[in-house]
Amino acid sequence: MNPFDVAVLESVARVLGDTEDGLTNDEIGKILAAVGIADPKAIAEASALPGTWIRISKKDRISCALDDHQRSSRTGDGMIKFVKSAMAPVRYIDRHDVLNGRLDRLNEVLSSVALEVRPDGTIAWLKAPATTVDQMALRAGSLTSELARRSSHAKVIKYCSVELLHKSNFHAVEEAVKGVFDRIREETGSTLDGAELVDEVFAFKNVTPMLAMSKLSNRSETSEQAGFMLLLKGLFGMYRNPLAHDTRLRRNQERPISDHELLGLLTMLSLAHDHIDRCHNVRRP
What are the backbone angles phi and psi of residue 211, rounded to the nearest 5°? Predict the structure, then answer.
């Protein structure tokens, strides 16, 4: 295996040495020892004066270890071994969310050198490397990364973050759509759902709406409000109602929801949340 660019090593170290979601210092030490890579922290501690505390971040510890090994061996084998050991499935029993999150982030990085970490911990070659940020996110299947890149509304991810990590498109769609209507209820105090909720909250003909996107003082403003009502009703009718009555197994067999469709829907729901942000509360129920 040819040596990797230092930027790749640093990006891998950033994922696996993340302050909150990365490996622990104890895990890093054990993995380095297991794959035969010198540990810069252990080396520094061995040469330090008694009682001296060696401070090195987890990211720098991994990055320095991989870079030093690569320089001495003139191969990139050390990084491959470290990643394979760090991503061994046995380390993630009852921690599936952590495994999926790391897989997405690592694969986003490794796709730039035509590599992919599979769920079983093995590393495979891709046909070609990703050359843009968009390609890296899509190759990795990292929908959360792509949503973040698009500056999607925070509430979109909030309502379906667990489902995205579990790569359950069926449940992610259901929860994300429910989230929009749940937010409307929170904003207004209404107890309705679906088309009835939209009519009660946004209807403006011969009644003062609970939520208004504008002053509704001209045809353009009233058309926008009416169009938003149709959009919300369409999303509910197309996704919320069918999924509420279908089992995941049946849906996946007859008309599965692809990553492409899910990304498009979540982008649309982000737009819906943006429009709700614009609304002002006119009356309570």
Answer: -120, 130
Residue 149 counted as domain residue: no
Residue 1 lies in a domain: no
Residues composing the chain: 285
Q: In this structure, is residue 148 part of a structural domain? A: no
99 with 167, same domain: the answer is: no
Q: Are residues 185 and 266 in the same domain?
A: yes
The chain-wide mean pLDDT, for the chain, equals 88
The pLDDT of residue 276 is 96
Q: What is the pTM of this model?
A: 0.56
Reported as a pLDDT band with limits 50, 70 and 90, residue 253 is: confident
Same domain for 194 and 96: no
Q: Which candidate, 252, 230, 2, places its Cα nearest to that of 115? A: 2
Nearest CA to 145 out of 11, 38, 272 is that of 11
